[in-house]
Amino acid sequence: MTPVCRVGLFLISLLFETVCQAQTSPALPRPSARQLAWQPLETTAFLHFTVNTYTDKEWGDGTESPSIFNPTKLDARQWIKALKDAGFKMAIITAKHHDGFCLWPSKMTEHSVKNSPWKNGKGDVVREVADACREFGLKFGVYLSPWDRHEPRYGTASYNDYYKSQLRELLTNYGPISEVWFDGAKGENAKDMTYDFAGYWALVRELQPNAVMFSDAGPDVRWVGNEAGNAGETCWSTINTEGLAPGKADSKYLNRGDATGKQWVPAETDVSIRPGWFYHAAEDAKVRSGKNLVSLYYQSVGRNSLLLLNVPPNRDGLFSEPDIASLREFRSILDETFKTNLVAKQPKLTDKQLNTFLTVSANQPLIIELGSEKSFDRMSIQENIATGQRVASGRVEYWNGTDWQPLQTFTTVGYKRLLRFPEVKSSKLRLFITNANGPVQLAEVGVFKASARE
Ligand code: FUL
């Protein structure tokens, strides 16, 4: 072929590709690189720890003396190892909760670990957690409460400078930060205060461009709308953020997302392993069981969300035994359930890669062969979300030897949809996408037999 022909052919194929793309891919919102890296973390942990751990409160009022903070056996390696063993991929520490007490020796205030008896005021909880995360290969994130009940500047414009200076300390002194959590909570009688969120967010982008930012409605990650561990059965990663702000968002809207949303802001499901967010000895017998945590996994990760499970360190500065036991059982059950994908190997659909996919149009049946008759009761479906989220509804059927039988219907898929149904025996299934925003990029399909401990 002459070079001219080759260039001609190249141009034609480029044109063809462009036309095809224009036809098959309406401009759907897509995740940014940082959101795309965040979504497959699946199980992440929250660490709520502050003076409340010693006062037995959930919200401190800012008058607590730093002298009460004394976690004499504090061992962040113990926390992070327990999380690592349970398959968690990130830990987020409450560097400062609403009481204003700082777990790191901030230069901006005296209200911090530096005036506590712990390590004679030389300790830094944030550093210990960041180091342990690095050692065990977890990502690390920080929670810095905008609502501050201790700082006298709160309620004046200069509080925004105070907050930004603290943010700068956290974002520059502790290595890579993967998530910054902006809590929208503010008590009813709190002083009036307009937060400079635009300024806070710009600072995070400048200092830690790979970090995702959480607040009720993004910019990168949104609240799931409840603290019970329930993502919507329908859960779009898209919403319209206009008019929404931290502390000002309709929780039902956040829970389900919006099929017509213009911004990609996936839901994060934050929930505690105990009734409270902070450690209370009286709740030692109320720790969620491993089985209960597995249900949370289905209700969050299995509904296109991410699980942010809070495990609060106790007064000694350690995870308590019941919490560690539940975490261990949680992972052991999940491992057993999802160990063997019963789908006969299909390049693209069972290679655990989201970027290799089958393109499926609405109502075009997809046969999923199991190779021989198998017993199963769980199914997993994933889209290639790098190019957006498309599935709005679908159904699955199984072959009973004579006929196709209904198995389950579902709505959104996105990153991952997990289906639970009573056990059936069959050699093949049939999947229909019944409604979608365009040709679906079906990335992964799994069929499983759940652990008897679920
Ligand atoms: C809420 C706070 O008020 C709780 O104390 C906790 O930190 C939770 C994760 O967010 O808004």
UniProtKB/TrEMBL annotation:
One of its GO terms (cellular component) is lysosome. This is alpha-L-fucosidase. Keywords: Glycosidase, Hydrolase, Signal. It comes from the Bacteria. Its EC number is 3.2.1.51. SMART domains: Alpha_L_fucos. It is an enzyme of class 3 (hydrolase). Residues 1-22 form the signal peptide. Alpha-L-fucosidase is responsible for hydrolyzing the alpha-1,6-linked fucose joined to the reducing-end N-acetylglucosamine of the carbohydrate moieties of glycoproteins. Belongs to the glycosyl hydrolase 29 family. GO terms for molecular function: alpha-L-fucosidase activity. It comes from Spirosoma endbachense. Residues 47-330 form the Glycoside hydrolase family 29 N-terminal domain. PANTHER family: ALPHA-L-FUCOSIDASE, ALPHA-L-FUCOSIDASE-RELATED. GO terms for biological process: fucose metabolic process; glycoside catabolic process. Pfam families: Alpha_L_fucos.
